[in-house]
Structures are given as C-alpha cells and as structure tokens.
Amino acid sequence: MKVSLSWIGEFVDLDGVAPERVAELLSLHTAEVEGLEWFGEAIADVVVGEVVACGPHPGADKLSLTRVEFGAGEAVPVVCGAPNVRRGLKVAFAPVGSRLPGGIKIKKARLRGETSCGMICSERELELSDEHQGILELDPAAPVGARLVDYLGLLDPVLELDNKSLTHRPDLWGHYGFARELAAILGRELRPLPLAPPWPEADGEGVPIELEDRAGCPLYLGLRIDLDAAPRPSPGWLRRRLLAVGQRPLDDVVDLTNYILLETGQPTHAFDLDRLQGPEIRVRPAAQGELLTTLDGVERQLVAEDLVIADAGRAVALAGVMGGENSEVGPETRRLLLESASFDPVRVRRTAQRHGLRSEASARFEKSLDPALAPEALRRFASLLARVRPEARVLGPPAVAGAAAAPAIRLELEPERAARLLGLPLGREEVAAPLRALGFAVADEGSGPLQVGVPSWRATKDVTLPIDLVEEVGRMAGYHRIRPEALLAPVEPPWTDPVRLLGRRLADRLAGAWQGAETQGYSFLDRRWAERLGLPEESFARLANPVQDRVDLVRRDPVPTLLEQAAGNVRERPRGLLFELAKGYEADRADADGLPVERRWLGAVLWQRPGVRPDGPESAFGAARSLTEDLLRTAVAPAGAEPGHGPSWAHPARALAWRGEPDRLLGWSASLDPRLAGELDLDGFDTAVVLLDLAALAELGAGRLPAFRPPARVPAIKVDVALALPEEVSYAEVEAALRRAGGKLLESLTLFDLFAGGSLPPGQRSLAFHAVLRAPDRTLGEKDERRFLERAAQAAQELGGALRA
Amino acid sequence: MRDQLERLRREGLAALAGAEDEAALRREEVRLLGRQGELTALLKQVGALPAAERPEAGRLANAVKAELAAALDERRRALAAARLERDLSGAGFDPTLPGPPPPAGTLHPITRVQRRLEDLFTAMGFVVADGPEVELEENNFDALNIPADHPAREAQDTIWVRSERGVCMRTHTSPVQVRALRRFGVPLRVVAPGRVFRQETQDASHDHTFHQMEGLVVDRGVGVGHMLHAMNTLLAGVFGRDLETRLRPGFFPFVEPGFELDARCPFCSDGCRVCKGSTWVELMPGGLVHPNVLRACGVDPEEYSGYAFGLGLSRLAMLCYGIDDIRWLLGGDLRFLEQFPA
Ligand SMILES: [Zn+2]
User: Domain of B11?
Assistant: First the structure.
C-alpha cells in the first residue's frame, strides 16, 4: 500500500521529521516500509514557461511555431502541435536536456525544417492525467522559470508499505490510521478527521433497505446525493493526491469514493440512483447461477455463497467487492445513492477469490473493518463533497438498516508482567502512556493491573488479549531498547535422536569413504510412478491440490527421485554415486494420529558404464553390496545378505535383502530392473540401488560397540587355492565349502581371480582364493597346508569340479 | 703380460672415469673387476707364466686391481655426489604436475548449514526434534492459533493431502513446537529443522519445497531479551562474527508480540544486491509464544512463557554460498552438488 506523507500531514504535524526518518520510524514501530519515492520526481525538470510568440509553422498546418521564455536567458524556438497553444499562455515546459516520465529525454530537434528547443507538455506527458487534447494551461500568475513541481506543490514523499505486514491491522488500511500511529510515535497531536456534522434522526425519506442476510451484512447505510450536474474531473489537489498513491483519477464521484477509501480505509460505492429499480436496496445471497456484469466489464456467474446488493429487480453489485455495470455512475448521472456498509470479512474474501476479483474494497473488508467507519465515511464524503462540488446537495440523513459495532473489549494488564516479558525496564506510566497515545482508554488505580478499554478500530480482531497490549506497549517503547539476555537453565545434555545421529554418520561415510554426493529430491512424484513401481495409487499419500498437475503422489522412499536425478546426470557424469537421507510416507498404513506411516530412509544410487560382468567387485551391484556392508559395519549392526526378491524397482534376479539379527529386514541392495532403466533412459548403464531403513538400523546398532580381538602372535601361512567348478555353483557355496575345509585354522579367505573360457571347458569357471591359515598356539607347516589343499580338493569334487594346479 | 696389464689399467681407468651414470659404472665394474671380468682373466694367466715372472706379474696385477678399485670408488662417490646435487637442485622435478584425482565426496549445502546450527543449539542444551512432513491440520494450524478461516489454509497457499480428516503437507516447521511441547513438556528448549511445502510457482527465489528451522524455548520468566540473545548467538555461529541486529514488529498468529529480526548485511558495508542497498537483511521472524498455543499444548500461560523463532535454512544456505537459484537445491545436478566437499 502506498502512503502519501503530505496526506498524513493533514492529520499530524510532520515538520522537522525527514521522510526517511518517518519511513524508519514506521518500520521500527508499526509495519514494514519497503520503499520511499518522491511523487513528482519524474517531472522535476519541467519548469513554468511563457509562450511569448506564436505563429503558424510554414511547413505544417497543424503545427505552431512558438518562442518560449522559461527564465534561462533568451526565449527559445519551440514547435508545438497543440490546438490551444497561444501567445501569453503560461505552460509546463520541458527544456532541452530535461527528462520526462518513461525515460524520455528532450533533445534539440528539427520538425519539418524548423528548430525546436524543448517541449510544451500536456497533462498526459506529465503523467498527471490522461488529458492529451491540448497542453496544460497554467494560471497566468505562475512564475516563469519556477519548477512546475514546486509551483503546483507536486513533490510528495510516498511510502510503500508491505501489505503482508498490515493483514492483522484493519485500522492501517487508510492514511488516517498511519497518522494515528505517527502521532503516538512522535508524541504529537492527532487532528480529527474533518466530518460533516451528524444528521438529525432519520426522517424516513430514504431509499428502503432490506437486509436478507444479516450475517453477511449486519449494517448498511445509503445516502442520497443530488449532484445537480454530470460528474466532472476533480480539482487538481484531489487528482494529485490520488495519483501520488497510484490511483488513477476518473471523475469527481469516483475520485471521492476512492479518496475516502484511501483516507479512512472504509470502501463506499456510488450507485446511479436513477438507474436503481424501485428504487430500493436488498442485500441478499445471490441466486445460484445468477449473472452480474461487474464494473470491469466481466459477466460473472454467481453462487449462493456470494452476497449481492440488489434493487427491486436484479443484482446491482457484488457486496464488498465491486459494483455492477447496470447501476454505474456515468455522464447521465445526476443523483447518487452512496453505499457504506459492514460486510462479513470471510464471505467477502471467498467471493473475491472465487471470482478472481480482488479489489481495493474487498482487500479492506476482508481485514474486519471497524463498523463505526461506515457512518463516518458518509460524513467524510459529505464534507469533501461540499469542497469539491459546492452546488451538490446531500439528501440526508442516510437510510440505515441493521446495526453493528466492534465488541467492547476491556482488558487487565499487569504492568510488571508486560515489562518482564518485553525485557524492558518500564514503570506503570511507561506502560500506560503509549496505550493512551494509540487511543486505548487506560484506567490506573496506582496498583494492581491497568484497566484498558480497546478502541473500536482495534477491537474487531486485532487486540483481544492482555498479551496483545504487551505488543502495543513494546513497539511504542521501542524494540531497539531490548537488550539480549542469556537464558539461565539447568546444565544437562539434551535428548538426542539416534536416527538423526546415525544418518549423519552414514552420510559422512558415504561422502568420505565412498566419494558419494549427498543430494535432496522433491517429495512429490508423478502419478506414473505408481504404475512403474507396480503399487496401487492408494498406497501413496496423495495431494488434493498438487502444485503441478498429476504430480500428486508423496514419495514412499527416495528411490524414484534418486533414479530420476541419476538419469539427469549421466550425460555429464557417466559414473556416479548419489545418496539421500529422506522421509517416506506409506498411506496403506496409519500411525496413531491416522497419518500415513512415516519412515526414514537412506537411499543411494550408483551408475557406471557396464563392465565385463554384471556382478562381482567391478560391477555396480558389487559396489552396492560392499557399500551396504560398510554402512552396516559403521552402524555396528550385525546383518547379512541373502539373494532374494527386492522391491519392484529391483532386478528380479539381482537383488539382496539385508537382514539383521534377529530376523529383521533392514533394506536392499540390487541392480536396477532393466525395464525401469529403459523407461528412465538409464539403459546403457550398469545401475544399482541401495535402500536402508534408518530406524531399524539405529535400533539394531543401539548400544553395540565394535568387538576387539587381540591380534595373533603366531605367524600365519598363506595358501593360494584355485577351483574349476560348474558355473551354476555360486560363490557363496564355494566359500562355505572352503571355510569348512579350512575349519578353525582358516583365518581369512579372499577371492582374487574369477574367469571362464580360456583353457576351461565350456560351462565351467575358475575361482582363485588367497587363504590365510593360522593356529593360536603353534606355527603351521607344510603338513597343514597339504591337509587344507586335500580338503579343498575334496570340497571341489563334491561341488562337481576340481582343484586347479 | 705386463703390456696387457698396463693396457687394461689405462683403458680401465679411462672407462671408469668416463662412466656417465651409476648403471654404466656398474657395467664397467663387472667388465673389469667382476668374477668373469678382464682382470680375473689376466690373473688366471699369471699361473701359466714362468715361475720367475710370476711374483712380478702378480704384484703388478694386484696393483692394477687396487688402482682400478680406487678409481671405481672415486667415480662412484663422484657420481653419487652429482646425483645428490642434481636432486637438491630440483632439476627434472615438475612440482606443478597433478596428483591422482582427489576423492570426490560431498555433503548437500543444506546439510552443512543445518549441521552447524544443530551443533550450535545442541551445545546450548537444545533438543533437535523432528516432526512429520505430512501433518495434521490441527497441528499445522489449529494448535498454532491460526483461525479456521485464515487465508493461509486455503488451497492457494497450502498443499492438502486427500484424507477424511484435515491433513496437509506442513507449511512450516512450527507444528514441531506443538509436538515437542506435548512430548517433552516444560521447561523445553528445542530446534526443529526440516522441509516445508507451499503452493508456490517455481522461480529463481521460490520453490514449493524448501527448508526451515524452528526454535522454541518455554520456561518460567522467558522474555524477548532471551529470544534476542538466541537469535544473535545463532547468527554469530553461522556468519562467524557478531552482527548488529534490530527487532521490528512482525505479525504471525502463533506469537505475540511478533517480530522480524534484521541483521546488518554480512556481505557489504554500504549496500549490495543481497540487502537491496539498505545494509539490513531480514533474517528471522520470531516472537513470544502466543498464550493460545501454550494452552493448546497443555502448558499454563500464566506460569510459563516462551519464545519461538523461524529460520529459512534454504535461504541461509543460498546466502552463505551465494547460490543464485533455489531450484539448484533439490535438482540433484552433480555439477552443483560437487561444489560442496564433505
Ligand atoms: Zn549488503
């Protein structure tokens, strides 16, 4: 919202307070000022000039050749196209080198062969109005050479306020509210709003008003006005006020309603009284499907929750939002019905929202305006009308239907408590004074709580509790006076979340040892993922109003987004490891609150160009396996892997399920299902995924420490053993057989070579191991080695193969 | 024989002196003095000489052997010295050549900022609490004193989850205030980092998913001064030095009075892009916990008071690292992620 300081200056003396300081004071005490600009600055170069000579242009019928004097040496030649230019006229003159709104810079020019050194401006060129039929004619007494902005008093500091910081303050939606704040901040007097004297009691001659929906409209006033003549442009002072705060002037009727809205915050609406059927006013819910063309020219189909102002025949306005075309004030208008009312804030907001029609009026009504403003606005209108159009007659008093008032709120405020909460050393009077300055009624009996009456303009929703008064006291006393104060509290270690801490350790491990990149993915998935994962949509939490159409599933785990991110990276990075600590939601189960069950996951995706084998140490599958083993070791979670069925993203034959002791599923490591890889444009890559349940891992590892075993003092012997076996025999079977062969003496067994083909018969493969044998109490010898090899040979035979030499 | 020895001596001394490096020297040593070498071959012939000539020839041969060994030794030392000198001179060593590619692991910028804050607050005795991202309307709005008809609840601001009861994607981390107070009771010090969701069209500075951190302290006698202290400490922890701060009025339904904390721009002294020329940066909303919130969490507002503040973790991460577009954060682009070494 824009606030003009010259306007505010009508109600509170701002002398000696620089506009920058006013902006700062409001920011620190009231609401956020986002900017300060000087209205009129864009035409600050324009000066008062006098046309000292004027004749026809020799080369063009419609142009005149003039000489303009503007207080800087000799008069200059100026070509002008306006019909009203004439000798002796005082004009707004933009000399060579000056700037006009819209970034226009005036240069010396030749127009149809004649030199022109400057421009005589119309109101539109000065952005003072849309008037462009002719140049602006100034008073003959205007001093030549003076800046136009100074002569017309146009320069006006205008503050831009952040509307979001005003939403809770219905009293700040007009200039008068800011004047009240500034008067309290500066300790200066607040002048009353000039109002027409109150009317005597109703004489019953007004337009009949019927309120059919008292909840939607508890109070409605209609004031009849005889304009005596058609609407006409407003006087300059009024137009400039409106322009300064960004409101386009139209005619005096509309301008006055806008002026009152911007000054008091209360919207009013002028109907052409002679276009109202009846004439009478009915405030009623719209009929479902009822049509109304609003002032912006849009035909709107209404619903029953919308409230309308209707006459005897039809809706004539959307209550609190916008008037209708059928009763609009125009050049034919001679008599007005001026509406000022109180509407239900929520109904107004819903209607404005439903019809995409947020107007200056609706923006204010939805803030819960003080109902006392409704009659006041009519008196303010009458007072201004007398100034703007003295011949007009107010056919008062207004017709009134209904009644409304802000609740009378009395609060008790303990000054000591206020001071303590604010952390400010405030005495009783220092608590009471700022409240009084803001219009609160404060009674102080010298001890005990202050008795505080809330003024009507703060009582509609803003101030309802003693704590609300604490805020008023604090912001007026000045938040800058509050000193930071360390909290005194018992020294004890806070509770820590084991899952969070484990997540940290595993992330460090993945980034440190595995060179992974931690990522974060969006929580929302395209609906296609349900199908891709072979899960019913109901197993996902689903959004009612997704940001993006069809992207309405909440992810159950991080795998889908990890895969999408991997696919997005392969062009630049043909090899990579991404991991994420993420929450997932499972809607096929519910927690104690009835919410989808939350699970905390660690997910990782690894991709690379395919190698010779899809398994084994070089493969993504193998890396995923080792990585998982490493993470489990980091978590001190005793667990093992078994080949089995993974989740639906997993390759059906290349998945490991990881289980902790006792039987608890911790997660999976697996190759990506090639069909899914194809859909995600990951085919051409060897991709593997790890998904671990962090909570299960944390639980399993809780309280466990790595177990220490003293290193042996006796030397070991190292034996290499190679076996040729049928391909169907898995590594696990071979390893188990060799471990049995080694018995207690076998300390470690490491696969170091795996191949097929070559000298081997088809269908066979060779596995070569380093074995380390050691006894705790003696040095082993050749006999022990031979015995191990014999047993290994026997094991190989039992598996359908043989030891290789 | 004498001539042969003399020839060997001359030729050998020349060869040793001319050996270019230690390998060449070693080859000459083997050729001249080795078991199969030329001197050994001559010594074998000494035995075939007439007896009278033998002692003389033997002496001569030994003298040649000694002379060659000495020359060998000298040459070896000279070569070693030359090698050391060359080594010390740095010749042939290019210190600008690269090493192997360094390990590449990285942590997400939000994680980095979040951990720093978690550690800071844990050190001050705060619990780091957690709450669900899919949250009850009750916790996200009702218990936080946000009226039933408040615009924030509407579909244009809040992302709702299809459900028989009111369930939404939490719009702030504030519902963790409610959960933490109910779980841990009072007195309580807690921070809660996490992701939050809003109906927001994505652009460089807006995303529908972003990160916040909530702070809450409830105890007897807690006031605004305590809040200011916590906020200042937090900023000093993040930016590594004390920043001048100021409180302004702000409005949030779950606090009263409500504040905005501005800090002197950490990036300039006379106005820049971040502070839009004002030298102040709006960093943290906060306030005293509204009595209605305390009551909704089963805490007596007559006895206890508290403060709460919020912090935009995404925004803070962007400020700290100069990230120009919020969409990098959840985009998963390795070229972005790789810039934040673990
Ligand atoms: Zn700056």
Answer: 2-89
